[in-house]
Amino acid sequence: MNSHAIAAGHAERLATVDALLPEMPALEPVEGSVSLSATAGDSAAAGLSVRTEAGPDSVDSPWRALVEHRLEARLTGPRPEAALDALLTRWDEHLKAVAPPGDAETAATVVRPSRDSPGSAELLRRGFAPVLVIAVRPADRLAVTGPPATPGVHIRPAEADDLETAVGLELELQRYDAQFGSVTLREGAEEAITADLSKQLKRENPTLWIAELYGRPLGMVRVQFPGETSWIGGRVAADKVGYLSSLAVAEPARSSGVGSALAAHAHQIFDECGTEVVLLHHALANPRSTPFWYAQGYRPLWTYWQRRPAVS
């Protein structure tokens, strides 16, 4: 079965799984990629393995291994789990030839639609774990009056004087998420975060807001508006896609309503500019962020299954 036929079967199968999944055409090779295919009886799979690198000082480096091998898969037939298992066998053969065994700065990652559950057991047997989710929230179109006020909480655009507060909140968030495998603490993280947030604070249109609890700055939220989200917009069936980059609340203010107020503020802003859906990443094992985001109207759309190191 050729890759286009597999992709057509894959799309037909997923159309019944999740209406917010985008069209997924046949996989086209890119520079540095390796095409893979496998069959299991009357089921078939096509895959594309892409190797990427990040420098240890890059802004992206805390959120990934420095060398990542990512597999995109298309599955068709009555037993997609068997097709995926056969494809993973082929991929493991490839990884053993190109990835040094035991290197903790390598990762093998499979990104799958969250509601496409066949194949999950096969990934678990091969040492993969679901570590990260892209969650989606369709727009609410709230009234122009905005969300209800939270007692004691005031939200305002961040200013230059808020840089130290914002950096501290971002570092606290990274340290917490590092417990769950979705973040790697890096030397120089504070410098990289400071440089990134400094750029955000110089923008004419604010993308960073501070929450004060009875006058103390104890939370923040960062967003990307439609027009800035092409890097992730293809993951959802919508044209105007917003991205919630991060939401952080200092430990003393947790469970005070600051986080919910920040989320509601961000959603109001997204609604006002006509955003159709909002996406965000969160650590699946995080016992705080997972229930929090789903209480705000999000649900899983894509799940990152990861094995680190890529080859044991």
From TrEMBL:
It comes from the Bacteria. Residues 99-119 are annotated as: Disordered. Keywords: Acyltransferase, Transferase. This is N-acetyltransferase. Residues 153-312 form the N-acetyltransferase domain. It comes from Amycolatopsis oliviviridis. PROSITE patterns: GNAT. CDD domains: NAT_SF (cd04301).
